[in-house]
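Re-run with default settings, no changes from the original entry. Doing this only to confirm the output is reproducible before filing.
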Amino acid sequence: MSAYIVRRLIQAVIVIFVASVVTYGLLLKVPGGPLSSIMQAQQSDKNRITSEDFNRMRAWYELDLDGPIRFTRWLLGVPRGPIVIGGTELFANTPIGCFAPVEREVQRKDGSYTIAQVGCDKLVYLRDLAGRRTSRGLLLGDFGSSWQILRERPVSILLASRLPFTLQLMFTSTMLAILIGIPIGIYAAVKQYSRFDYAATTFAFFGASMPTYFFGIVFILIFAVGLKYAGLPYLPPGNAVSVKDYVIPLLGRIGAASASDRLLHMIMPVTVLVIFNVAQWSRFVRSSMLEVMRQDYVRTARAKGLIERIVIMRHALRNALIPFVTIVVLQIPGLFAGAIITETVFNWPGLGRLYFDGLGRSDWPVVMALFFITAILTVFATLIADLLYTVLDPRIRFS
């Protein structure tokens, strides 16, 4: 077992590194960036920005460096000063990439124009990076500073402020989905082709086929807008807490940021996520249970005269949950990353909403931090799933 875990940890390091390289490279090719608004202002007659100001901003965001140099500084950190050994500045005259890449406006085949790199002004040496911002690097937990959302503040502060809201939403919805979805799937398999099975199947198909933003918009229109205009008790349409007290019919005055206020704000986003997960997980448990209940060991248990409840719960369910473990464990990254669409629809101040804002405002340090942490959690979630297989299935052993 220990040798298997060591091998998986080595594989995890390789996978995380490759994922970080790929995502960082893709973000480099995304149109726009932190200077897109400045470039638009430069083309306006009202706000003229000089070339010196533009170059200074490029240097501040390190956009004047090659992608590999920026990636290395982002991943491994930036030294606070030159490396000196025996009075000699080490690697000071070593070229490490291209400095100030030449970019010009070029015309595409469709007639539009874009900014593209057409050359290299000069090589960059290690000594040329002296005086720039320092960083401990991503490997030491330093995600850099936010470019737009929380300008020049550490990304870690931004993540810490949003993480509790995401954990609150995702943990509640996941636990409710498990407690509801598994019994529905079991009972639908035991009572196959019954009215309950047909009703559960219809609900599952509808819940899994419709996107979460559809349920979110419908819930807001019915339970927030419609009930309020009808003079009935309604739910807050969005956010996690209210900024001031409000009155709900039959419920009275609700204090801002109180426990009841937080609970009312959670009802709709949690319900949307529960509907989506229950629809998928109940169908998966039903299919797995039907397959297991046809196995010989289940027939043998019934032939021995065991009670049907014991046959289902002790013999069939344990084996049916083995593939379901993979789905549940892979929810661990989702507990951190959040539900992007649901949080965006309900303006929930979690990490999913933060990721959406980071992409919209080209705040790459925030986006890359979420990518990197999600990749780490995904890799380790698969390792946890493999280890849980040995608990549920005694036939599985890792040597």
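Residues 39-146 form one domain. The first strand starts at residue 84 and ends at 85.
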